[in-house]
Design goal:
mainly alpha
Length: about 220
Amino acid sequence: MKIDENSKLGRTWDELRHHVPFTAFGTSIALVLLGVLTVVLSPSKATMSEYGHELFHVFHPLHILFSATATTAMFWRHEKRVFKAVIIGIVGSLGICGISDVFFPFLGGTVVGIEMEFHWCLIEHPQIVLPFAIFGVLIGLASTNMVHGRGPTIFSHGSHVFISTMATMFYLMAFGFTEWIPHIADTFLIIFLGVTIPCCTSDIIFPLLFSKPIANQIYKYHE
C-alpha cells in the first residue's frame, strides 16, 4: 500500500524511519556506558541505590529538557503556532517522560518480581522538572528558526534517547532493581520498551498527530 507522503501518516512514517537509527545508537551507547560504570563502582546495594537516586535526579530533568526540545521542534517544523507549540512541548515532555522514566521501569521491575518504590518527580518535587520543560520548549522554538531541515529534531531526538536510557536505568537502580546484571535480558527489554515507545511517541507521533501542514507547503522527504 502506497502512503501519501503529504498525509499525517506519511509524514510520521518518514520521520520515524529517519530517527530509528539514532534511537538504536543512543540506546546502545548508554547501555555500554552504564555497564562500565556498574563494574567500576561495584558498590553494595545501599550504595548502588544512593548512586542511582542521585543520578536519576540529574538525568530525569535532562530527559525532560531534550524531550521538550525535540517535541517542540518537530511540531514547529510542521505548524507555526507558538501557543500550540508550547502546549505540545510541555505536555509531550512532562507526561510522556514520566511514562518512560517512571512507569515503565516501575512496572517492569514489579513484573520481574522486584519490590519497586514508585517515585514521580512531577508530583514529588515539580520545581525540579518544570523549569527544564519550559527551557526545552524555548530551545525547540529557537533551534528550528535558526537551523532548517531535520538537524534540530534529529540531534535532540538522539540526545533524548541517550538521556532517557540513562534515566530509566537509574530509576531501576534507585528504587529497587539494584542487581540488574543477573537480570540483564529483562533489564534490556524494560529499557528498550521504556525508551523506544515513549520517546518516539513524544518526539514524533505526538507532535505530528496535532500538527497541520503549513499552508502551501509541500512536504518533502529530503528537505
